[in-house]
UniProtKB/TrEMBL annotation:
GO terms for biological process: DNA recombination; double-strand break repair via nonhomologous end joining. This is Non-homologous end joining protein Ku. The lineage of its organism: Bacteria, Bacillati, Bacillota, Clostridia, Lachnospirales. The gene is ku. The keyword Cell inner membrane does not apply. Keywords: DNA damage, DNA recombination, DNA repair, DNA-binding. Residues 253-273 are annotated as: Disordered. NCBIfam families: Ku_bact. It comes from the Bacteria. GO terms for molecular function: double-stranded DNA binding. Coiled coil: none annotated. With LigD forms a non-homologous end joining (NHEJ) DNA repair enzyme, which repairs dsDNA breaks with reduced fidelity. Binds linear dsDNA with 5'- and 3'- overhangs but not closed circular dsDNA nor ssDNA. Recruits and stimulates the ligase activity of LigD. It comes from Natranaerovirga pectinivora. The keyword DNA-binding applies. Belongs to the prokaryotic Ku family.
């Protein structure tokens, strides 16, 4: 696993040198865009429509469009001038809170933290204190010139840093159209829906969930690589249930049947001796 960032956790006067590693990876299957005529990968060029010429990397500057067609230009020295001392202190713990107080909508990316050569004892101390107190740390960290808010917590036997959005980065739910407010619900519908939830309730086991579309896409690509003919599977027939009560009852019936089927142990075949 490649180190993507080196720094330290600042916990009061305690300094814990750490290495940071990306905890997740994107498994999406990527495609190249090809010229339909000859299947050659397409190249993209940065051009200026005003000068009608290709622009080199050294001739590109950063501009903020403060109103349509009007830009203010920022140079590298401008960015350097506003960098605060906090940006060079690594992971600066500012508060300890309960994890339950943070809604999942705030979480962004996850990173594993491991101690450097001389940071093992302090790392273990912080991990132990957080485990004992049941709290997580709120910290600030700068990655690639961007200062982020972060949650530092214990995951299994390691410290994990989760970058989280600032409050002004989370859109207000008030801006979402069409959310029902006061709706009268039938008690029978609520009871059956509750039964359905109970029937579908299970312990969270991430290993049981797979990306079925990605698997099918990989299988399709492999078949094409091997020159096999690809057949389109017929669509499964779905009953269009409009009535809510009927939909709930049918869902409960099918879910209960599937659960009983899964719970029934398979009979082993016996061979005559």
């Amino acid at each position: 696993m490649r180190t993507m960032w080196k720094g330290s956790i600042n916990f009061g006067l305690v300094n814990i040198p750490i290495n940071m590693y990306t905890a997740t990876e994107n498994k999406d299957i990527s495609f190249r865009q090809l010229h339909k005529k000859c299947n050659t990968p397409i190249k993209y060029k940065k051009t200026c429509p005003n000068c009608n010429e290709e622009v080199k990397e050294e001739d590109i500057v950063k501009g903020y469009e403060y109103e349509p067609g009007h830009f203010v230009i920022l140079k590298e020295e401008d960015f350097a001038a506003i960098q605060s001392d906090a940006q060079f202190k690594g992971i600066e713990i500012v508060d300890f809170v309960n994890l339950s107080e943070i809604d999942p909508i705030y979480f962004d990316k996850s990173y594993y933290l491991a101690p450097q050569e001389n940071g093992g004892k302090a790392y273990h101390l912080l991990r132990e204190v957080m485990n004992t107190s049941g709290r997580i740390a709120i910290a600030k960290i700068t990655i690639r010139s961007k200062q982020s808010l972060a949650a530092l917590r214990v995951y299994k036997n390691a410290l994990v840093l989760e970058t989280i959005f600032y409050p002004d980065e989370v859109r207000s739910i008030d801006h979402v159209p069409g959310i029902p407010q006061d709706v009268n619900l039938d008690k029978k519908e609520v009871d059956i829906a509750t039964q359905l939830v109970d029937t579908l309730t299970a312990e969270f086991n991430p290993e049981k969930y797979t990306d079925e579309y990605r698997s099918a896409l990989r299988n399709l690509i492999e078949q094409k690589v091997q020159g096999k003919e690809v057949h389109v599977a017929p669509e499964a027939e779905h009953k269009n249930v409009i009535d809510l009560m009927e939909a709930l009852q049918q869902s409960l019936k099918e879910t209960t049947k599937e659960k009983k089927k899964a719970a029934t142990p398979r009979k082993r075949k016996t061979t005559a001796s």
